Structure prediction request, 540 residues.
Amino acid sequence: MVADIKAMTAEMARDPDSLVFLQLGEALRVLGNLDAAVKVAMAGCERHSDHADAHDLLARVFVDAGNFDAAHEEWERALQLEERHVGAHKGMGFLLYRLDELDSALDHLETALATDPTDESVVQALRTVRAAAEPSEADITAARASGEIRADVFAGFDGAEEGILLVDGQGRVLGGGVRNASGEDVAAEVAAYLAGAAQEAERAARLLELGVWRAIAVEAPDGHLHVSQPRQGTFLLIKRDRAVPPGRVALLAQRAAAAARTWLQAEER
Amino acid sequence: MTSRIGRALDGVTRVRGLQGAMLVSLDDGLVVADALMEGVRGNAMAALAASLANRLSLASASSGIGAPQFLHLQADHGVLLAVPGPEVTLLVCVGGADVNVGLARLEMLRAVEKMG
Amino acid sequence: MKSTRAIEPWVLEPLERFVVEAGARLTLVMTPSGQVIAQHGFARAVDVMAAAALGAGIIASTSELARMLEQAPFSALNQKGESHGIFLSGFDSVRGQMLVLVVYGAESSVGLVQLFFEELVEELRAAAPPPPEHRAVLAADFERDLNESLATLFR
Prediction:
């Protein structure tokens, strides 16, 4: 590591415009040499002010130094430059989680996962934030009593909270819910994967000249999935046991899609 | 292509409305063996079907129902169907919008059995 | 900052499309001598130069192997690692032979890369303007051109 730092420092001296400062700053940060890491990252941001990775690096150094406000500013800047920057979304997710702004944290982490579905650290972060965001039964009862919870998009549908999910094109949950066999809320994770799958369905149908895709049905050992598009760029997932015939799942999907369209129109007003 | 796989694919393509069947490497999205009508883009079908199956597997597994055993993409002018094949492969079929999906599914599952 | 850059502007749009469709993490478009025409995703000039030299070297050596075996040159090479794959291929255009090196991650596949590589080739062939008139190349020109190219690729 030290040899690497020496080599990178030499390269920076040789070519001050080099982007090697990104690796150098990160290496210094990992070693805990935060003063040097701040200097490298700030100099990098000055020279490459339109480079999102530079601001992401500086934000990470600020976080390690405990300067969360400055980190927030840098990640905001990174997102202005590159709106789907995974590192910046992860970072914002972390900062907002610290501030207990869990919904906003989830928005950022879901966008990060939709951008890079293979990033395990985001999946893990989503689980943590989701678990923290889960309201207690007492909170739900109190909120229902006070009318704080609005009627959900799929109110009245069987399994509305564990097997019907409405997702936007960026993989964010709009309504409904999905739970796995252990009863865990997996809506955020499923939503992120679902958006990626639906976009791939659109591309496959287009390039194979099949026309506009209407639905995807998936049979698996422990259940069925039915994915449809109630409106351009919005995806609906129905999850049911294997015991429910696929035809019935498709009918339920049609009814849920109609409810989703009505709800989306009302939301826009 | 071994004759066993070729015969199995030919059997599937006898289902009315199917325009082709293909065995695809799931990791690579490449054609292993095919029986396609003229005009079907084999390489596109392989790459896109594998990618779609992989993405749907993530959604399916995370929702707690396990790995997909049958996929059916329904579009205005046709369908794309897939079942897991031997080893890490996928048996993929493409057909018109009027294809009997139930029959195609049965023939695809039978073909995979024959492939061993 | 956009992470796709091209020295020849007609390469940019097809390359940007390719990167999105194929899910490429790194891409180099270069000549058989290793001169870089466009790049996506590289952070350091030194990496671009090394990758271009290695890519061009691999194509040169496999072409020579094919010649020794009295076969047509290999059309593409693909190597898959645990988390990344490398795809290397070439094509002819009015600007001469061009090579493309692609590094892709687990969210893509060689099938997707190959599929959209075919489209990239078609689009680049259609967009390529005729080559500029030949002029004598001096060592000083080469050095200056190289530095200008690197400056463009990492602006």
In short: Confidence is low (pLDDT under 50) at residues 143-151 of chain A. Chain A has eleven helices and five strands. The first helix of chain A runs from residue 2 to 14.
